[in-house]
Amino acid sequence: MDAFLFALILTLLAGLSTTIGSVIAFIVKEPSKKFISFIMGFSAGVMILISFVELLNEGIKASTFLIGNLFFFLGMIIMFFIDIGISHKYEFENKDKNDNHNLDKTSLLVMLGIFIHNFPEGMVTFVGTLKNAELGILLAFAITLHNIPEGIAVAVPIYTSTKNPKKAFYWSFISGISEPLGALIAGLILFPFINDFVLGATLAIVGGFMVYISLDELLPASRDSGFDHISIIGIILGMLIMVLSLDLL
Hints:
Elements: H1 2-15, H2 18-28, H3 33-62, H4 65-85, H5 100-131, H6 133-162, H7 165-190, H8 196-224, H9 228-248
Helix pairs in contact: 1-5, 1-6, 1-7, 2-6, 2-7, 3-4, 3-6, 3-8, 3-9, 4-8, 5-6, 5-7, 5-8, 6-7
């Protein structure tokens, strides 16, 4: 039960990091393209490395090389169908500051997409923490980095159109709260059946989630700004910091 509660707390903290993005939106108004390029690349580097080095490896150790990889690809396939059904795009700057209705609509759609996409991310932190606390902390860190730009994407159009920081903060909060909800649902379903195989399989699946999110969302958003070198520097630093973190832990 202590592990269950700790996993929920970590997931809650990671999910609500979207509100950090909203605070950045209040201060910066329109974050620079270099900043977005770097933080998206950094987040992708963190998530890709931890997926292949830790999560997929746990799935293989709990079963076989083939079965572990099949669970990994299952995670990517699940995210693919989620993405088809509920897609979202990042909007970090506003092209028509007079069109408040479009800005509100854009922010609402982005918030809804992020809310639904964050459910499996809540599972990532929850299941990883059940495996061991150190892995859970690293996963929470990786997802926190990912969620900060998401909070910016939700808050920027709302704050630009309304100048109301409370409203922007509220929507970014709602977009992040789905992670602890996803963790709670996963915990209620999986917790009674937890064993080494189930944990390993689930970690491989969520590794597939994270790689899909990195390749389909974070890397394109990082490179769309036109600062390709800043993007790759972020990716390398994200991977390097994860390597050092894993070595220390």
